[in-house]
Amino acid sequence: MTIATALEALSTFLGDRLSRSKSDLAAHGQSESYFLPTPPDAVAWPETTEDVTEIMRICNEHGCPVTPWGAGTSLEGHALAVRGGLSLDFSRMNALLEIHPEDLDAVVQPGLTREELNRDLRATGLFFPVDPGANASLGGMAATRASGTTTVRYGTMADNVLGLQIVLADGRVIRTGTRARKSASGYDMTRLFVGSEGTLGIITELTLRLHGQPEAISAAICAFDEIGAAVDCVIATIQSGIKVARIEFVDAATAAAVNAYSAGSFAEKPHLLIEFHGSPQTVAEESQRLGELVDDMGGEGFRWSTKPEDRSALWEMRHTAYWAILASRKGARAVVTDLCVPISRLAEAVEETRADIAASPIPGPILGHMGDGNFHAILLIHDDAPDELAAAKALSHRMVERALRMGGTVTGEHGVGMGKLDYMQAEHGDAWALMGDIKQVLDPKGILNPGKLVPQL
Amino acid sequence: MTIATALEALSTFLGDRLSRSKSDLAAHGQSESYFLPTPPDAVAWPETTEDVTEIMRICNEHGCPVTPWGAGTSLEGHALAVRGGLSLDFSRMNALLEIHPEDLDAVVQPGLTREELNRDLRATGLFFPVDPGANASLGGMAATRASGTTTVRYGTMADNVLGLQIVLADGRVIRTGTRARKSASGYDMTRLFVGSEGTLGIITELTLRLHGQPEAISAAICAFDEIGAAVDCVIATIQSGIKVARIEFVDAATAAAVNAYSAGSFAEKPHLLIEFHGSPQTVAEESQRLGELVDDMGGEGFRWSTKPEDRSALWEMRHTAYWAILASRKGARAVVTDLCVPISRLAEAVEETRADIAASPIPGPILGHMGDGNFHAILLIHDDAPDELAAAKALSHRMVERALRMGGTVTGEHGVGMGKLDYMQAEHGDAWALMGDIKQVLDPKGILNPGKLVPQL
Lengths: 457, 457
Description:
2 copies of one chain form a homodimer. With 457 residues, the first copy, chain A, is of the alpha+beta class. The first copy, chain A, folds into 4 domains: 3-91, Uridine Diphospho-n-acetylenolpyruvylglucosamine Reductase, domain 2, CATH 3.30.43; 99-212, 2-Layer Sandwich (Uridine Diphospho-n-acetylenolpyruvylglucosamine Reductase, domain 3), CATH 3.30.465.10; 215-328, 2-Layer Sandwich (Alpha-Beta Plaits), CATH 3.30.70; 329-419, Alpha-Beta Plaits (2-Layer Sandwich), CATH 3.30.70.2740. In chain A, 37% of the residues lie in helices and 20% in strands. In chain A, strands 12, 13, 14, 15, 16, 17, 18 and 19 form an 8-stranded antiparallel β-sheet that branches. A 5-stranded antiparallel β-sheet of chain A has the order 5-6-10-8-9. In chain A, strands 1-2-4-3 form a 4-stranded mixed β-sheet. In chain A, a hairpin with a 4-residue loop joins strand 5 (96-100) and strand 6 (105-108).
C-alpha cells in the first residue's frame, strides 16, 4: 500500500511509457503560476482508455495518488501532484475520433487541444467556440469548466460538453450524457464531472457541441477616458440585448504594454474589443447599434470592420496582452487573479480593484471578459522581493472578498485547484461539505488529484 | 420510526397546514398520466424555508417519505407518494422574491408558476423563456429539468437556473450557485439538483436567468405532404444555422384534431410552426431565409408575419393541440411518450414511430420540438379496453429502444419519475449505480421521493 509498490506494478504494465527521469518529473512539476515546483514520483503516458483503467486499478489498490496532466496551462496549480504519486499525461490520447457535421458534435480524446480541434474542423464549416486564451487540452478545459472570450455568446465548457467517458477511481468505465441535444434522464452526471478538476474521475473521451462557423464576423474597437465609462458601456451592451460574440476589456496599462511589446499605436486608454458573429446583415446591424451606444457613452474612435486583416490586428492586442504585460516589468512573474460578479456590481468591483492595486507597491493591469462580469488583474511581482508576493496575495485575497460581498464567485473561470481552496467554505458554506461527501463516495481512498477542490481530510 | 409518529409530530408543528382529509389526499394522489391514483398519508403546506427545515427534521427522524408537489403537471408520476408519507405542497411558497433587471435574473419561490412569473415580469421588458406547455411550477420545472418549445433558442432549465436554495434530507439548508453569470468554483451543485426530481433535496428558492423580451417576433407556418419532408426541413434549418426561437412540428392527425376542436381551417397535413425573436430586421431576414429553405424542400403555404394576431392563431394550434388530440377520441386517456435522438437520426426515428403506431390498434398523433430532436406521440387509449394500455406501453417501450439504438435518451424532457425508471440501467449502465451512490450519501434513509430515478434498494 505505498506509492513505491504502485510504481513497480505500473512499470511492469507500462514499460517505457512510465518515466521517473528528472527532466520528465520536473516538466510535470511546473505550473504557469506562482506555486512552488512539485514534481510527481512518476509520469505515465496512457494511450487508450484500457490503459487508464489498468493504471487506476493499480493505483487504487496501492493507494497511489493520480493527477491528470493536459497541456499544463492551468493557473491554479490543478495539475501539480502535491501529494506525490503519478502524473497522468494525456498527450498521447489526442485523437479527434469522430465528427458528426449533421449533429454539430465531435468526439475527442482529452489530450487534443482546442487549436488542434479547430484546425481539423476548418474544412467542415464548424468550430468549437470555447476560448480560454491558452491552447489548453480539451480534457483539461472540461475538468476545470473553462470559459473565456466567447462565453458571452457560446457559453462555458458546461454548455458545450454533451457527454463524457470517465474512468472512475477503481477503474470502472462509465459514460455520461448522449449525443441527443437535451435529456431529462437522471442526474446530470456530465455537468457533475465538468469542473470537478480530476477529483471524481478521469476524463478519457469527450463529446463536444460544435457551432457553425459564422458567415460573417465583424470586429470593433473603441477607447474610453475612464475605466468606469468602458465598464458602463459593457453593462449597457449586455442589458440592451446586443448580441456580441466577444466583448473584451483592456485597461490603459495593458494598451501601453501592447504598444511597447509589438510596436502598436493604441491610445493609452481603456479599450473595448468587440466581435459579432452572424450573417453580413446582422453583424452590420449589430455593429451599428453598438456604435451608437458607444457614442452615447463617451467612447472614442469606434470603428468596425468585417475585414480579416483589421480583425487580426485587434485580436492581436487581446492575445498578446498577457505576454505584453509580463514584458512590461523586466524579470517579473505574474499572479493572475480571477473575479466574477453580477453585471450590476461590475463597475464597482473594477473600480475598487483598480484603486486597491494603485495603492499597492506592485503594478497590475486589468483585463477581462466583462460581458460575463469576469475580469483579471495581472499582478507583476519580482521573485527577489518577497514583499511583492505577499502584496499580490493580499490584493488577490481582497478581490475574492469583494467578489463574495457583491454576490459573485471566487473564480469565474480559472477554477479552484490550490489557489482558491481556502475560499471554498466562504463561498459555498455547507454545500462544500456536500462536495466532500460526493468525493468520498466516488473516490473513497482519496487518490484522485488529492489536495484540490474539496475539504481536505 | 413510523409514518404515523412522524405525522403526529408534524401535526403539532403545522396545525391546520397539515391535512389528512380524503379530498386533499385524493387531489395529491392524482397525476396527468396513466399511473394509478396513490394518495399520500398527509399533505403539508409549508410557508417558509424554516417550515421545510423543520418538516424534514421530523420526517428524517421518523423515516417518513417526503414527496414534493408543485402544480401536479408531471407526466411521469414524479409527484406521487408511491411509498406513502408526506406530500409537500408548495402552493403557498409562490412569491416572486426579487427581480434584478440590470443582471437579468430573478429570485423566486418554488411554487410560483412560469405564467405567473411572466405576468409579473411583463412591465420590466424581461421574460423567463422555458415553456413546457403546462403552467408548471418553477420548482417542479427545475426538479425535472423541464424544457419545451423555446429550448432550441434559450436552452432547458439546466441553462436557466443560476442557483438554488435546497433543504437537505436532514434539514440542513444549502445554497448552490451565485448571481454571477458563470463560475468555475467547485462541483456544479446547481446542475446536480436540477433534474434530480426531489430525490436529493427540496428546492425552496430558485435564482433564474431572465432574457430581454424580443423587440420583434415573427411567426411562420407551412405544410408538407409527408412527415419526412417536414422533419428534413427542420434538420436543414438547424444545420444551416437559421436562428429559430421555436420550431414545432404537428402531424396531419394533430392538424385534423385542432380543426375539429376549434373550428380551424388548417390543411390536414404535417405542419411546422416557427417563431423568430430579434430586431425587426433580423426576424425579417431570418424569416425570409427560412421561406427559401421551405420552398426548396417542398413546403407549401409558407407565410410569416410579425402581427400578434397572426401569431396567436398559429400558437393556438400548438397550445390547443394536446386538448384537441384528447378530444379527438371520445372518452380516451393519453399516454404521452417522449423521445429524443441526435438530429441526424430524427427523420428515421419519426418515420419508424409513425409506422409502428399505424400498425397498432390505437391512434397516436405525433408532435414535438423537432429542433432539439425531441418528439412525442400522444397515444389515445380507452380505460375499458385493457389491451389498449398494453398496446400503448408496448409502443412506448419500442420508442425507448429506438432512442437508445440511435444514440439518444429515454426522456428528452418529461423526466424519469416512475415511467422511465425501468430504462435507466439501459441508458446509463454503471453511471446509474453511481447516481444511486450519490443519492445514498445525500439521503441515507431514503426518505426523499422514494421510488423514483435511482436504483431501488
